[in-house]
Amino acid sequence: MRTVGETLATHPDIAFAAAITGTSNLVASGVFRTPGDLYDYIDRQIGPLPGIQSIETAPTLREVKRLAPALP
User: Fold this and answer.
1) Inter-residue contact 31 to 13 (CB < 8 Å)
2) In angstroms, how far is CA 10 from the centroid of its own chain?
């Protein structure tokens, strides 16, 4: 868990990452331009990390509160 969390925290697309309790061990919030960018990130950056057993996504289609600076 520590290795994956520390790795997530270094990725520029991740605005927030934290360890949590419950059915999951980590939560992260990322900023991606398109659904394809999100898919590529999960497929190429997150999926191959050792220790990943499952990934759940919840895309936000409308900005409610900005967590990170807007992308150009």
Assistant:
1) yes
2) 11
Q: What is the pTM of this model?
A: 0.71
Distance from C-alpha of 32 to C-alpha of 39, rounded to nearest angstrom: 10
Q: Quick one: 48 exposed, middle or buried, by C-beta within 10 A (0-12, 13-18, 19+)? A: exposed
- 7 burial level (CB within 10 Å; 0-12, 13-18, 19+): middle
Q: What is the pLDDT of residues 17-68, one digit of tens each?
A: 999 998 889 999 898 888 899 999 999 998 888 888 888 888 877 666 666 6
Token pair 């994956």 is at which residue? Answer: 4
